[in-house]
Design brief:
- The protein is of the alpha+beta class.
- It is 29% helix and 33% strand.
- The protein has helices at residues 29-40, 43-62, 70-78, 85-93, 103-132, 156-169, 196-221, 455-474, 504-521, and strands at 5-8, 19-22, 146-152, 173-177, 187-193, 223-230, 234-236, 243-247, 260-270, 276-287, 290-298, 304-306, 309-318, 321-326, 329-335, 339-341, 344-352, 358-366, 369-371, 377-379, 388-396, 417-421, 425-426, 434-438, 443-451, 478-486, 492-500.
- Helix 5 (103-132) runs antiparallel to helix 7 (196-221), helix 6 (156-169) crosses helix 9 and helix 7 (196-221) packs antiparallel against helix 8 (455-474).
- The radius of gyration is 39 Å and the shape is elongated.
- The model is unreliable at 1-9 and 526-541 (pLDDT under 50).
Length: 541
């Protein structure tokens, strides 16, 4: 430890001679590192770091994250949404728009791993030494609260062998102690059990360590992206086709497999109240132009696994095939994916995006059209048994050239025209020679494609967490000692005593069962009475 002294005159007390006065001790770099390490390896520090990561994760749920919703973050930064541009700049400087990719979140994660490592390694060493240490000899057995004296015709060595077998069947660790070692000068068996209480506690804390590693691996090397596909359509596993992408820092574009998924068929069933009962996609996997898997059914909680990727059934909807023509010129020919909004499937089609006459269609579909007593249209069910499509035509400066969702076009005034169509129907000219055709009604299916390399590590951590919790709650340390010696009448006296370090009430019942088993296993002389003495002092010396 560095020490600095200086020779000064004591001005406050002239009676004291001039001497060396010690200045405050300033720790050097090595002492500072040791102090930081001692603090970091405390379990309380690990808990503080874990709590800090939890708080950061909660903050990330309230502030939009750039990797997930870049448009929202851009609006916050521009001040057109959120709390305003000045606060957004503060959030940006603090890395709150990308919490899980910020330097401070990474630092907290690394510190937590180091702290847990520093906490667990010494505890595992101590646990290993404790487990390997043989059971200690008992002293003053008569002073234990769990204490019984029995008599048998067997000699002491044979009686101890019988009890040793009973303890072995109860999975006790046993040690035979010689008469020269025991304090009473009698043969003794020392047994103990219940190290899994401390072992379970260690597993419980290790589980957090394993879970942290699994989450870190998943965040760094994982990927998740979403895509909607119409029946008969195909998509390729490449980064550009996915929306709502969450890619790990080390999952690159070249890590995509490049296989194709074709949606061959989609089927949905509903409950009586209109909520989905089941929806299933039937897909084929294509590699290098060849179908390698066909007829694979994907439904909720039953994903498709292929080449390290998982394809989850996420959502579905209806996709009417709409054709818009101006005379013989086709302006639009595509399937428009609609979303369910209160029993009505709605969506928007960008027909013409060039100025000055941009064209958009607002679509509303009733899959099972009917009219109530007041003449209002409604859908009897979600099954497309009698579909009717309502289309409103918008023309003008609609802002369709912007890179935004089609439904967010600029609506001013009223639509210029509207029409009602059934599958196969074509409208009358709506504006000059503009017509709308409702060709057919396929369905679309939404998938999430993901790669989660840390899931098995997280599963192992969850199992360790459960095993450690059960062991630490129900396991308890207990020790049992058995002594045997000859008496003057030729009988052998067997002393059975025990103590529990935890759950003493539970051990009292277990000890009574052990004594009953010993009494049954030891032969006694006809007419001889077993003597049993119970003390009340729990001290075992």
């Amino acid at each position: 430890m560095a020490e600095t002294t200086t020779r000064t005159q004591n001005a406050t007390d002239p009676r004291q001679p001039t001497g060396w006065a010690r200045l405050p001790i300033i720790p050097g770099p090595w002492e500072t590192l040791l102090a930081v390490w001692r603090r970091l390896r405390k379990m309380s520090t690990a808990l503080v770091l874990l709590f800090s990561l939890a708080i950061a994760s909660i903050v990330a749920t309230f502030i939009p994250q750039a990797p997930l919703v870049p448009d929202t973050v851009a609006n916050w930064r521009a001040g057109t949404a959120g709390p305003g541009a000045p606060i957004a700049r503060m959030f940006d400087a603090a890395g709150l728009f990308d919490v899980f990719g910020s330097w401070w979140f990474t630092t907290l994660t690394v510190l937590l791993v180091v702290s847990l490592t520093g906490c667990l390694i010494p505890r595992y060493r101590a646990f290993w030494r404790n487990v390997r240490r043989p059971p200690a000899a008992g002293r003053n057995l008569e002073r234990l609260s769990n204490h019984t004296v029995l008599r048998t015709t067997l000699d002491p060595t044979a009686a101890l062998a019988v009890v040793d077998g009973l303890l072995a069947r109860r999975r006790f660790r046993r040690r035979a102690i010689d008469v020269t070692t025991t304090r009473s000068g009698r043969e003794q068996i020392a047994a103990e059990r219940g190290h899994w209480r401390e072992g379970g506690n260690l597993l419980f804390h290790t589980a957090f360590y394993v879970l942290l590693i699994g989450v870190a691996v998943a965040q760094a090397f994982g990927f998740a992206g979403q895509i909607n596909v119409v029946e008969g359509g195909t998509f390729t596993d490449t980064r550009i086709v996915y929306g709502n992408v969450r890619a790990g820092r080390y999952f690159g574009i070249d890590d995509h497999r490049g296989f194709q998924v074709r949606l061959d068929d989609f089927d949905a069933s509903y409950h009586a109240n209109g909520t989905p009962d089941d929806f299933v996609s039937t897909v084929s996997i294509i590699e290098d132009g060849d179908v390698v898997r066909s007829g694979v059914r994907v439904r909720p909680n039953h994903p498709l696994r292929h080449d390290g990727m998982k394809l989850y059934q996420l959502r579905f909807g209806m996709a009417p095939h709409v054709i818009v023509k101006a005379g013989d010129t086709v302006l639009f020919d595509d399937r428009v994916m609609l979303g369910n909004s209160g029993g009505v499937w709605t969506g928007t089609a960008k027909v013409k995006t060039s100025s000055p006459d941009q064209i958009a269609l607002d679509l509303a579909l009733l899959p099972d059209f009917a009219v109530d007593d007041r003449g209002r249209p409604f859908s009897r069910s979600e099954q497309p048994d009698a579909p009717v499509l309502f289309a409103d035509l918008w023309v003008g400066e609609l802002g369709l050239e912007r890179a935004v969702d089609a439904s967010r076009f600029i609506r001013e005034g009223e639509p210029v025209a509207g029409t009602t169509l059934v599958p196969g129907g074509t409208s009358d000219p709506l504006l000059a020679n503009l017509t709308v055709e409702f060709a057919d009604l396929p369905l679309w299916s939404g998938f999430q494609v993901s790669h989660a390399p840390g899931r098995w590590t997280m599963l192992a951590g969850s199992v360790l967490l459960l095993v450690g919790l059960i062991s630490s709650l129900y396991g308890y340390r207990r020790r049992v000692w058995v002594e045997a010696h000859r008496t003057d009448d030729g009988m052998t006296t067997v002393v059975v005593a025990g103590v529990a370090l935890q759950r003493k009430v539970v051990f009292a019942d277990a000890f009574a069962a052990l004594v009953a088993a010993v009494r049954t296993a030891l032969p006694t002389e006809a007419g001889a009475a077993a003597q049993e003495t119970t003390m009340t002092d729990a001290h075992h010396g």
